[in-house]
Design brief:
Shape: globular
CATH topology of the domain at 33-58 and 76-210: Rossmann fold
CATH architecture of the domain at 33-58 and 76-210: 3-Layer(aba) Sandwich
Mean pLDDT: 88
Number of strands: 10
Number of helices: 7
Length: about 230
């Protein structure tokens, strides 16, 4: 299986006053297309920083990031924004839905950056909502939905452009256990049946069991990379 992601000697440092804080140090990682990877480790270990770099939300201090044959670390800000819009779907802990918009309109938002007609945007949003089991909630606003339903709307928004890569930052961190399991089962479905490559930051060992591999980071370095045994 070919790699969707290849990173080499990846480093990221931030300036805090006169102090340089290195968050990631000379990291190497391959992620095959169709993988489902859970990123774990203590707070400050570099998990979210790595996720943001791989999703094109931030740029590295050193090293290279190749996603689908594209060196994203070399792209201009404008080219990177265009790449993100078509290639990456984002799922966050707190949903980030627009409260004044319906579920349908929230899901359509990424498509406003495309040349699709209003009718085509609506059609694609409806398909995405049906895939996450919320076809009957299309006209509901976020305040009329449960936390689990809001997260499923955010997943529909993430997949509406049919990206190859989904990046998830604590996607179940604000959910009760039942809602969390429903969201994790949905991510497994997207990985297994729709071929999405998924990178998920989580502190929850139970959530990590839904992935195919678990990557442990500590102090900006990869300390273990293990397969998950599934029954």
């Amino acid at each position: 299986m070919s790699n969707l992601i290849e990173i080499r000697s990846l480093s990221k440092a931030y300036q805090r006053g006169k102090q340089t804080v290195e968050v990631l140090h000379q990291l190497d990682l391959d992620v095959p297309a169709g993988d489902f990877l859970a990123l774990m480790g203590p707070s400050g270990s570099g998990k979210t920083t790595l996720l943001n770099l791989l999703g094109g939300l931030d740029k590295p201090t050193g090293g290279s990031i190749n996603v689908g044959g594209q060196r994203i670390d070399q792209l201009s800000a404008a080219a990177l924004a265009k790449w993100r819009a078509s290639q990456v779907g984002y799922i966050f802990q707190f949903y980030n839905l627009m409260p004044m918009l319906s579920a349908q309109r929230n899901v359509e938002l990424p498509l406003l950056l495309t040349k699709l007609s209003a009718a085509e945007r609506k059609k694609r949003a409806a398909i995405a909502l049906a895939l996450v089991g919320l076809a009957d909630r299309a006209s509901h606003k976020p305040t009329e939905l449960s936390g689990g339903q809001q997260q499923r709307v955010s997943i529909a928004r993430a997949i509406v452009s049919d990206p190859a890569l989904l990046v998830c930052d604590e996607p179940t961190g604000d959910l009760d256990r039942q809602s969390a399991e429903e969201v994790l089962a949905l991510l497994e479905l997207l990985n297994r049946e729709h071929g999405k490559t998924i990178l998920m930051v989580t502190h929850d060992p139970k959530a990590a069991t839904h992935a195919k591999r678990v990557l442990h980071l500590d102090k900006g370095a990869l300390v273990s990379d293990s397969a998950v045994a599934h029954a």
